[in-house]
Every structure is written in structure tokens, then in C-alpha cells.
Design brief:
about 80 residues; mainly alpha; two-stranded antiparallel ribbon; 3 helices
């Protein structure tokens, strides 16, 4: 797995969710923001404290923690 030194987990912050650099921005929040703001420029306007490497590592962390299983999507 790639080096994920920007992803921190502290049981006293955000219920132990993985966060970016000890801030209160969680990996799931970054992923949701990426879905909303497809343009990285808009994303960094909304979250100016996020750096490109933070976003890359959030994606890498999420990818490493997903299971390779097929999910049936209804209505697609």
C-alpha cells in the first residue's frame, strides 16, 4: 500500500474516523466533496486547507478499504 502519512486516526476525534492530517476533515467527507465538486478548483475553494496530496491519499485510503464485490444497482 502507498504511504498514507496524511491520514490520521484518533479515537478522540470524529469518533475515530480517518481524518486528513489530524484535522476534523474526514476521508468520507473528502470523498463526498469529490462527488459534489468534480472540478478540483471548486473543491479547494470550499476546503482551502485541503492539498492535492490530501485528496490523493484520501482516495488511496478509500480504495484500499473497499471490498472487491459486485453490487447490484437498482433502477440503473
Amino acid at each position: 500500500m502507498t504511504n498514507l502519512e496524511r491520514i490520521t486516526i484518533d479515537p478522540t476525534k470524529k469518533n475515530g474516523q480517518p481524518c486528513i492530517r489530524g484535522m476534523r476533515i474526514t476521508v468520507p467527507r473528502v470523498l463526498k466533496a469529490l462527488a459534489i465538486y468534480a472540478d478540483r478548483g471548486e473543491l479547494t475553494k470550499e476546503y482551502p486547507e485541503l492539498k492535492e496530496e490530501d485528496i490523493r491519499q484520501a482516495l488511496a485510503y478509500a480504495g484500499a478499504h473497499l471490498y472487491d464485490e459486485v453490487l447490484e444497482l437498482h433502477g440503473v
